[in-house]
Amino acid sequence: MENKEFYLGMWVTKDGYIRHELLPGGRYDEARGNRKSAYQGNYKMTGNHIDYKDDTGFTADGDFKDGILYHAGMILYKEN
User: Fold this and answer.
1) Matching Gene3D superfamilies, A to Z (predicted)?
2) All domains in the chain, ordered by first residue
């Protein structure tokens, strides 16, 4: 996808348990279940690839394919 603005916003697993909010400026906020802001950190986009580094130093990554985010064995969908 050419438009980086598309990636900004909330990405959610089908069951709604995991919620990644990709914020402007390269920050993210992840909620898990009822835990708001369970993880926070920075992200960097390279093409359709995303690299995460949370504030504790943990790293992970993912890829966007056909408007879906595949991240650490999870599938997340853009929330409208």
Assistant:
1) Uncharacterised protein Atu4866, PF11512
2) 4-78 (2.40.128.290)
